[in-house]
Amino acid sequence: xxxxxxxxxxxxxxxxxxxxxxxxxxxSGDFTVLxxxxxxxxxxxxxxxxxxxxxxxxxxxxGGRIVDNIAPRDRDIAMVFQSYALxxxxxxxxxxxxxxxxxxVPRVQRDEAVGRVAKLLQIEALLDRKPGxxxxxxxxxxxxxxxLVRDPLLFLFDExxxxxxxxxxxxxxxxxxxxxxxxxxTIVYVTHDQIxxxxxxxxxxxxxxxVVQQFADPETVYNRPANLFVARxxxxxxxxxxxxxxxxxxxxxxxxxxxxxxxxxxxxxxEAEGWNGRDVVLGIRPECIAEPTRHFSDLPGAVTTxxxxxxxxxxxxxxxxxxxxxxxxxxxxxxxxxxxxRLSETAQFAVxxxxxxxxxxxxxxxxx
Amino acid sequence: MRDxxxxxxxxxxxxxxxxxxxxxxxxxxxxxxNSLRTSEEIAQTSxxxxxxxxxxxxxxxxxxxxxxxxxxxxxxxYMLNSALVTIPATIISTLLGAVAGYAVSLWRFPGDxxxxxxxxLGLFLPQQMRLLPWTIVLRDVGLIxxxxxxxxxxxxxxxxxxxxxxxxYYVAIPQELIRAARVDGAGFYRIFWRIVLPLSPPIxxxxxxxxxxxxxxxxxxxxxxxxxxxxxxTAALIALTAAVADIPQYGxxxxxxxxxxxxxxxxxxxxxxxxxxxxxxxxxx
Amino acid sequence: MTHAVPxxxxxxxxxxxSALRRLPEYLTIWVPLLLSAGHLVSFALWTIWVSFTPSxxxxxxxxxxLRNYTSVMATRNWTIAFDNLLLFGSGFxxxxxxxxxxxxxxxDQRIRGENVLRSxxxxxxxxxxxxxGTVWSWLLNPGLGIQxxxxxxxxxxxxxxxxxxxxxxxxxxxxxAVWQSSGFAMALFLAGLRSVDAxxxxxxxxxxxGPIRLYRRVILPTLWPxxxxxxxxxxxxxxxxxxxxxxxxxxxxGIATLLPALVVYDFxxxxxxxxxxxxxxxxxxxxxxxxxxxYAAWQYAQRRKAARA
Lengths: 368, 285, 309
Description:
The structure holds three protein chains of three kinds. By secondary structure, chain A is an alpha+beta fold. Chain A folds into two domains: 232 residues, 3-Layer(aba) Sandwich (Rossmann fold), CATH 3.40.50; 120 residues, CATH 2.40.50.140. Chain A has eight helices and 20 strands. In chain A, the strands form four sheets. In chain A, strands 6-7-8-3-9-10 form a six-stranded mixed sheet, with helices on both faces. A five-stranded antiparallel sheet of chain A has the order 13-12-11-14-20. In chain A, strands 15-19-16-17-18 form a five-stranded antiparallel sheet, with no helix packed on it. In chain A, strand 12 and strand 13 form a beta hairpin. Chain B is 72% helix and 1% strand. Chain B contains 13 helices and two strands, in the order H-H-H-E-E-H-H-H-H-H-H-H-H-H-H. Chain C has 14 helices and no strands. Chain C has one domain: MetI-like fold (Orthogonal Bundle), CATH 1.10.3720.10. By secondary structure, chain C is an all-alpha fold. In chain C, 74% of the residues lie in helices and 0% in strands. Chains in contact: A-B, A-C, B-C. Chains B and C meet through helix 1, helix 4, helix 5, helix 6 and helix 7 of B and helix 2, helix 4, helix 5, helix 6 and helix 7 of C.
C-alpha cells in the first residue's frame, strides 16, 4: 500500500499557479527527496502534505486515507523545519514531548519516549536546557528528536540541514541516512541541494516551476535525466550540454560536434536513429571526459578518444577540472591531478560514450 | 564613532547639555520644594525657593484633609478612583489586545487585514469625535458617572494601541514555530498559552506601562463623564487648583500635584526602558 | 480506493464538527476586534451625522446641510482657536524639533551620563498634561513664579507676564508643551542617529569631512524620514491639545488661548449645542486628516520605493 499518494494537486495564490498538477506516489519505507531551485513549489507541496496549507484542487492520501479535510495534528505526520522551530520558552524535553502533551499521552509514556529518542540521537545531556543554549547542530538534533518521538506514518523534512555549516551538514546527512536505514521510516525531504538529494534519497522528484520534471531513483535521475533542466540541475559541476547533429556514418548513428576537420564524432545508441540528420543537444557528464590513460570500459566502442584544446585548468586537489574547447562549445572534463596540462595546448582525452544523453533542442526532452 | 579628540568642544557640549537638563528639572524641583514649604512662605517670596521651615504636613493635608469642591477628604478618594479605573482597564485591554494581536499576526482569517486596519485607525481618531457617542452609550447602559463606565471606555479605546503593539511584536515570531506546533497537535489557545505568551513578557510590559500612563494621565473623559466624588485625580486636580484661587495654599497644592504625578513617575523610573520603547513603537506605526 | 469513500464521509462530518468546536476561537478573535473597529466606525459616522442635524441639547434627526459648519466657523471662538492652533502648532513643532535635534546630536557625542541625561529629557512625557499645565501656571504666574523670583532678587523692572498677556499667552502653552515633548523628539532622533551606518561615517571621515560637514552632509540627510514622523506626531498632538490649556490658562486670559478642542467641549457640554460641537469636532478631524493623509501617502510611496529597490 502506498504510504503517500499525491493526486493531481494544484495550488494557486491569487492568480499565480505554484503547483501545476503534481502526481506522486511513495511506498512505505521510501526516502523521497523533493529537489529543485527556490520557488519551484517544493516547500509548498510539503506544507500541503502536512496540512499547513490547503491545495486548490487534487487529493492527498496518507496511509490509504484521504486527508484533505484533516487537520495537521490528525494526519499522523511529524515534521522537521528549516529553522528547527524549537519552542524557545520550553526545555528540550518539553519541546520533544509537546506533541504528546497535546494528545494527552500519560507522563510515564512521555518520559519513556523521550528517553528512547534522546538515546538514539545522543542528546540525553541536553534535555533540561532551553533551545537558546544549544548550538546549531544540537538544535538540529532536537528538532529531529521532536519528530522521531512521534513514530508517525510519514516524516516531513523541510530543508533541515540548510542552516548548518558545511562540515556539520555532511555529518548530519550521514546520520539521517543511518536513521532511515535503521528505522525504515517513510520520509519526504525537501532540499535545494542536489548533493543531499543524491546521497539521501531512494527516490528523487526534481521540480521546476510547479511541475515534477522527473521522479525516479537517484541513479536514473543522474545518468538518464528526463530533460535538459534535470541534466543541468543535478550534478556539480553540471552535465556538459553541447549542440550536436546526428549523422549516419557507415551504417551507424553518430553525434557530430563542430564542422569539417575539427569535427568530433561520438557513437550514440541506435535508438536515436530516427533523429539522423537533425540537430540535438548532447549531454555528457564531466567525469566521462578524462585523460587518455583512464580505463572506463573494455567494451568495444565504449570509449572514444578525442583531441581538444585546453582553455583553463582548475585544480581542486582530488582531481583537476579542465575546460576544453569542442568545436564552438566549451566542455568540462575531470582528469587525474597527476596530469598537468598547459593552457592552450592540444591534448588527447578519453570519453566514456556509454553515458551520453541526447535531448531534443526544441523541447529539451530526452531522446534516448 | 564621532570625533572625540576636541577637548574644548567637549567641555562646551557638557555645559550645554547640563544647562538644558537643569532647565528640564526646574519644574519638578520647584514642585518638590514647594510641597515642603508653608503657604505663607511661598506667598511672601515666590514659587521658587528653598524651604526655610520644612512643612512635611503638606503631604498629610493634601492626601486626606484638603477640600476639593465642598468635600474635605484630600485627594485620596480621587487617587483611589484613578487606581480603580486604571488598573482594571490596563489589565483587560492588554489581555484582549494580546489575543487580538496574536490572532491578526499569526493566523489568517477572512477579513483579518480589514479589521486590523480599522482598529489601528483608533490611533488617529480624536477623542472629540467619540465624546457624544460615549455619552449616549454610557447613559443607555447606565454607567454615566461611574468608574465602570471609564473602565469600559479606556478598555475599548485602548484596544487600538494594545492590539497594534502586540501584533507588531508577534509578527516577528517565525511562522515555522506556529506550523511546528500545529503539526504537534496544538490549537489556537494552546499555541497562545504555551508558545506565544511565554515569549510575550517584553511586549506585555511595554503595553501595560503605556496603558497605565495613558489612562492614569487621561483627563477629558474623566472630566466629561464623572462629577464630584467619582472623578479621577486629573480632573480633581483642576478642581483643586480652581477651588483655592481665593485662599492660595500652594504648599499643599504642590504636595497634591506630586502625589498625583507619583504613580506614573514611579513607573517611568522603574520601567523607563519599556516606557521609551512604547513611545517609539507608538510612533513608528 | 475502497478506503476513500468512508473516509470522505467521515471527513464532512468532522468538518462541521470542527467548525462548531472552533466557535470559541472565532468569538475570541472577533469580539475584541469588532468592539474596537465597531465603536470607531459607528462613533465617527454618528458624530458626522449629528453635525448635519439641528440637534441642540439632545440629538435629533433632520438635515440642516452645512449650517452648523458655517455658524461654527463664523464664531469668534473658533476663529481665535484656529489662529491659535496655527501659532501654537508651528511654534511648538518647530521648537521641539529644534531642541530635540540639538539634544540628540549632543547626546550622540558619546558623552558620560548619557542614560541619566536621556531620562531627564524624557521624564516630562510620563507626567500628565494636567500636572504640567498646573506647574507651569505657577512658574509663569508673574505674581508667583519666575518674574517674582527675579524681582525679589533685585531686578524689579523684570517682566515675564505672558500668562496674563492676551497677545503672548499662547506662547506659555508652547513653552509647557515643548518642555513636555521635546524629549520625545530627542528619543526618536537619537534612535535615528544611532542607526546611521557606521561605515558611512567612516567613509566620510576618510573623505576628509569635519564634524560639522559630517553632520550637515552625511548624517542629517538620513534623518529626514524621522523628522517627518516627528512633525506629524507633534502636529497630531497639537491639533488635539485640550488638557494642557485647561490646566495652564483655562483658555484665558479671556478667550486668548482657546484651541479647537476647547471650543468643541464648550459647544457640546457647556452651551448644549451638540450639532455645533459635532461640527467643530469634524472640523478638527479634517484638520488632522490634512496632516495625516499626505503623511500616509508619503509613507506608502516610501514603502513602494523600498519594495522596488
